[in-house]
Every structure is written in C-alpha cells, then in structure tokens.
Specification:
Number of strands of chain B: 10
Structural class of chain A: mainly alpha
CATH superfamily of the largest domain in chain B: P-loop containing nucleotide triphosphate hydrolases
Number of domains of chain B: 2
CATH topology of the largest domain in chain B: Rossmann fold
Radius of gyration of chain A: 22 Å
Largest sheet of chain B: 6 strands, mixed
Order of helices and strands of chain A: HHHHHHHEEEHHHHEHHHH
CATH class of the largest domain in chain B: Alpha Beta
Low-confidence stretches of chain B: none
Helix content of chain B: 25-40%
Distance between the termini of chain A: 21 Å
Strand order of the largest sheet of chain B: 6-7-8-3-9-10
CATH architecture of one domain in chain A: Orthogonal Bundle
Structural class of chain B: alpha/beta
Number of helices of chain B: 10
Order of helices and strands of chain B: EEEHEEHEHHHHEHEHEEHH
Shape of chain A: globular
Largest interface: A-B, 31 and 40 residues
Oligomer: heterodimer
Strand content of chain A: under 5%
Strand content of chain B: 15-25%
Mean pLDDT of chain A: 86
CATH architecture of the largest domain in chain B: 3-Layer(aba) Sandwich
Shape of chain B: globular
Mean pLDDT of chain B: 86
Number of strands of chain A: 4
CATH topology of one domain in chain A: ABC transporter involved in vitamin B12 uptake, BtuC
Strand order of the largest sheet of chain A: 1-4
C-alpha cells in the first residue's frame, strides 16, 4: 500500500530520513505555504496606516529577538534578563557605522544586509562574553549576572559621547534594486526584510534542533551533570547558547535601527528586557512556535490597552494618569495568569489543537 | 599493560578519606564488580574514574592514558560510559531523544551543515538514528520510544539509563547500582542485559551492586571496599572465602 502523505493517519515512515522532514505531512506543508504566501502578498492588496504597520513591524522584530531569548532561556534553561541590551548591541553596531561614516554613507544605504549581519555578529560576540559567568553560576545567580550586563550597557551608552549619550543616533534610509526606499514604502520594505529574516532564522532553528547542536542545549537545561557524562562540555554549551541568542538579538536590533532610522537608549532598557521575557513566557518557553505567539499576543495586548486608556480618557480626563499605570498592570497580570494557569504558554494551546486533528478522519 | 589501572588512589574530603590508597586493575572484556558495605567508597571510585571527582593522590590510567585529572566529557570521549545510581536522565525528553543525545561526540558535522540540514548532517543523523534504534532493540525499549522519560516507571527509567550509557558505544561501561530498587523480574532482565552487553558487544563492565547473589553469579572479578580501603579482590570464590570480607559483611563473633 502506498503510504499516505497527506494526512497524519496512515503516513508510515519507511526510512529514518523521512522522519527528519520539517513537515511530516503534505497537508502541513500546504497550510504553511499558503500562510506564508499570504504574509508576503497581503501588503500588495491592503495598505495599513503607518502606525499599524509599525506595530506589525515591531511584532516581527520582537519575534526575531524572542527566538533568540527562547534559545537561551527556553531551551538551554539560562534565564537572561539582559536581552534588550543584546538587541541594543545590534542596533548600536549599525548606529556606530552611521556615526562614524555619516548617516547616508554608501555602506548604510547599499550594504545594509551586511550591516544586519554585522549587528548579529556583534550580538553573538557580546553574548559569548556575557555568557562566561554561566561557567560558574546557575539559575538566579546567572540571571543577576545578565541583569548587570543590562545595567552596564545602559550606563555605557548614556555616558559615552560617541553614543550621543543615549540620544538618538540617526541612520539613513536604504536603497533597494528598485531605487531609494521613500517614506511611504519604508515600513512595507522593512516588513519584508524582517519576514525573510524570520523565515531563514526559523528554519535554521528547526534544523538545528534535529542535530547535536540543538540537542546539546536541551541537555544542559535538563541535567548538565549527565550532559557532561555524555561528552558535552556544559560550560562551552552554555556560552554557545548565549552567543547564538546574542546573534538573534543583534539581528533584531540592526533591523530595529534601520526601521526607526536611528538608535536611542529608550528602546533597550530593562523594561524591554522584561517585556521580551514576558513574550517568551506567554508564547511558551522551550518551543519554537511560542516565539511567534508571544510577541504577537503582547504587542496586540499593548495596542488594546492603549486604545482602552484613550477611550477612558474621553470620559474621565484624570484617567490619563491611570492609563500610564494600566500598561504595567495588565502586563503583570497576564504574566502571572499565564504562569499560574498555562505555564507552557500559548504554544501549548497550539499543541492541543494539533493533537485533536492528528487522527482525522478517525475518532481515535 | 593493563586495561584500566587504578594505583594508590586516595580521595579525601577535608579530613575524611573516602578512598585511601586503593589499587585495582580492571581487565579487558570481563565483568568486574566493586562491592562493599554502605559508605565504603564504591560510588566515589566510579566518580573518580568517570571524572566527576579527581583523586587527591594516585593515578588512574586507561589504555595507557592518564585520566586522573580529566573532566567527565573528556573521559566519555575516551570510550568510558557511565550509568548513574540516582537517575540522571533528561526528564523532559523522550526516550529516543535521550539516546540521540548520548551520540553527541560521535556525530561529525559542523555547525553550518547542521543549520542547512541537507546532505551530510541529514545523512549522519539518519545513521545515528539507526544506531540508536539498534540499542533500543537491544535493550527492549521499543514500547517507550516516544514517551517522556519523566513519565516512565522507575524500572524502565533504570533501563533507559543503562541504554543511554550503551548508546555512547563505549569500551568500558560503569554501572552504578543498576538493580537498586527493582523487583526480581526486572533484576533478572537487567542481569541478562549486562551479560549480553559483555558477550555480544565485547564491552568491559564495571558493576557496583549490593545484591551479592547477583554479583557472585555474574562477576569475573570482584573488588571489595570497606571504609575506603580495598580489603579483598579476586574471583568470586576467592572473595567469598576471604576472612576479611566475611568480617566486613558479617562481623566477627
């Protein structure tokens, strides 16, 4: 009997290679392709207003950053409270080029993909250095070490004249094959760049977790003593986890700098680190698809809270003060509720939905 | 040249000598047991060999290589695998993933090949999976292949622990009380596995075990420790008739 490739039922694997595929059924692959092409095509037919486009771009950038955070915190089990600082390293790498060469130098307008890569590399190197304490420290103590990196980063940026003391350093607009990217196309253009990066990095991670480089991360999370006995160098693996996560954050930061046409310290504060952590928790720590759910959920929640507080301010002018308090309050509440009732995050809902459809068309 | 040579090993924690001047020679291809009353230093001995502890004095040589100061991951890449007494499995992963993890050092492809996962990495992983399936087959773990290790019963987890050590494809297998807390049936299973490991795979086994019946039946050589000192060694018959050993286990008068 020819094996059925469309449904999970009756899809028998004959070789181990077949079991390695990213999409186990053709239906999965079809749904994914349709979804992905929809993501690529919709900006042609609809044009959203610039604030909404910015929110979507923010979500995409957060997805890249949270993918990295999930690697180090979700998969390798090392809590990092300095993730926004790694994002900042990426952004300030681009900004430094702009500061030295001028904000519309050829390198920035034409060689920007290289600069994104440079941002990622800078993030990875910083990640490896910040990861060094993980050779000795564990759990909360390590979290404090990463927190101190966040503080050092903010301090360095705020006090160095080279970094404009935390004031925005502008980065020029870029050029594509179609010509200069103007004001109207700016957000759409970076939407596509971020989307392509997410697809590349996402598949990269998927592949990585089928190999020893991904499994080693999970091994040091679950039991680093046993990982040691299995021939992995736990210290090296932890530093490598930080470097990998730093790379993702750096890429996110570089895109952020280009999108906002500049880098300023206010986007890379402790508050943002906590927000990234919240996104990872709400999405589901230790899952790849959680890194997509989390940022989307938190950013949309953010938008709703903002809208609600504007609405409330119409009726109660004094509620403007309340509105500033409302955002941290809702964030806190959402995190607490998720930790209490769904510690495995939105990704777990996705898993449950998938498990229901697994046996289709049979009942069990 | 002996296979694994432990000479004059002393391990002290502050004033306490967990091991004092222990000499042992472990021969290739045999099942060697280390026995002794509680707190005699059996597990410390295994920890010294596998690199979790480093002896304060003395030397451990394996095939002519000095591994006195090697760390666990260096020791395991020399072909010494170890199963833990208190389960040290990767609890959040399936049995299959636990075993795949143990193949870490055997997989030869670089990071970028892993990212692309096309050609070499994919081929190596398929071969790797094949090897792991052979171990699963050998240890009769087929029903549990995809289940989370944390949800399995204690007996099965112990079996996974042995299987994981075996997946490293070792020359020397250190088993720390693989039968502790098991019922008779499970014990018989494990004993059969240990004998198969030695006979079919040609693996040298070092066994730490409390069940003297089992030890006397399957061991080729026995070393007896008491309060960190080696009080007797030899074949089961020699050890059983050694007055010092009898004294340590039964006491005198």
């Amino acid at each position: 009997m020819a094996a059925n490739r469309w449904l999970a039922t009756g899809n028998f694997f004959i070789t181990y290679k077949e079991e390695q595929r990213t999409f186990l059924t053709s239906l999965d692959r079809l749904i994914f392709s349709i979804f992905l092409s929809a993501l690529f095509i919709w900006p042609i037919f609809f044009s959203l207003s610039r604030p909404y486009m910015l929110v979507i771009n923010n979500i995409l950038i957060a997805v890249i950053a949270v993918l990295g955070l999930n690697l180090v915190t979700g998969f390798a089990g090392l809590i990092s409270i300095g993730h926004a600082a790694f994002v900042g390293v990426g952004a300030y790498t681009v900004a430094s080029f702009s500061r030295v060469l001028g904000d519309s130098h050829f390198l920035i307008t034409h060689m920007w993909p290289l600069l994104i890569l440079a941002g990622g590399t800078a993030g990875a190197i910083t990640g490896a250095i910040v990861g060094l304490p993980s050779l000795r420290l564990k759990h909360l103590y390590l979290a404090i070490a990463t927190l101190s990196f966040q503080m050092i980063f903010e301090w360095v940026i705020k006090f160095m004249t080279f970094f404009n003391q935390g004031q925005t350093i502008s980065v020029g607009r870029v050029t594509w094959f179609t010509g200069d990217i103007g004001r109207n196309d700016h957000y759409t253009f970076w939407y596509y760049v971020a989307l392509v990066l997410i697809v590349l990095l996402g598949f990269g991670i998927r592949n990585l977790f089928k190999t020893r480089y991904g499994r080693a991360l999970v091994a040091v999370r679950d039991n680093d003593r046993a990982a040691d006995a299995m021939g992995m160098h736990p210290g090296f693996t932890k530093v490598y986890a930080f470097a990998l996560s730093g790379f993702f954050a750096g890429v996110a930061g570089a895109v952020h700098a280009f999108l906002y046409k500049g880098a300023g310290i206010e986007s890379f504060t402790l508050h943002h680190s906590i927000t990234y952590l919240a996104m990872a928790i709400v999405g589901g720590l230790g899952t790849i698809n959680g890194s997509f759910w989390g940022p989307a959920a938190i950013e949309i929640l953010n938008l709703q809270v903002e809208k609600f507080s504007e609405y409330a301010a119409n009726y109660l002018p004094s509620a403007m003060n309340l509105a500033t308090a409302l955002r941290p309050f809702t964030f806190g509440l959402v995190i607490v509720l998720f930790l209490m009732f769904e510690p495995r995050g939105i990704a777990n809902w996705w898993r449950i939905v998938k498990s229901y459809t697994k046996t289709w068309p049979f009942r069990y | 040249m002996t296979y694994l040579n432990i000479s004059e090993v002393t391990l002290s924690f502050g004033g306490l000598n967990a091991l004092s001047h222990v000499n042992m020679a472990i021969e290739k291809g045999l099942i060697t047991s280390i026995i002794g009353p509680n707190g005699a230093g059996k597990t410390s001995m295994l920890n010294c060999i596998s690199g979790f502890y480093h002896p304060t004095e003395g030397q451990i040589n394996y095939c002519g290589k000095n591994l006195t100061h090697s760390s666990p991951h260096e020791v395991s890449s020399m072909g010494i695998a170890r199963a833990f007494q208190n389960l040290e499995l990767f609890r959040g992963l399936s049995v299959l993933d636990n075993l795949l993890l143990a193949r870490h050092i055997k997989l030869k492809y670089n990071f970028f090949e892993a990212l692309i996962f096309w050609g070499k990495a994919s081929r190596v992983e398929a071969e790797n999976r094949k090897f792991v399936e052979e171990v699963i087959d050998f240890m009769e773990l087929e029903p549990y292949r995809k289940s989370l290790v944390g949800n399995l019963s204690y007996g099965v987890q112990k079996k996974v622990e042995v299987a994981r050590a075996l997946t490293l494809d070792p020359d020397l297998l250190l088993l720390d009380e693989p039968m502790a807390g098991m019922n008779l049936e499970e014990k018989e299973d494990i004993v059969r596995f240990i004998m198969d490991i030695q006979k079919e795979r040609g693996v040298t086994v070092v066994l730490v075990e409390h069940d003297l019946g089992v030890v006397m039946d399957i061991s080729d050589r026995i070393h007896v420790l008491d309060f960190g000192q080696l009080i007797g060694s030899g074949t089961p018959e020699e050890v059983a008739s050694n007055p010092k050993v009898i004294e340590a286990y039964i006491g005198n008068e």
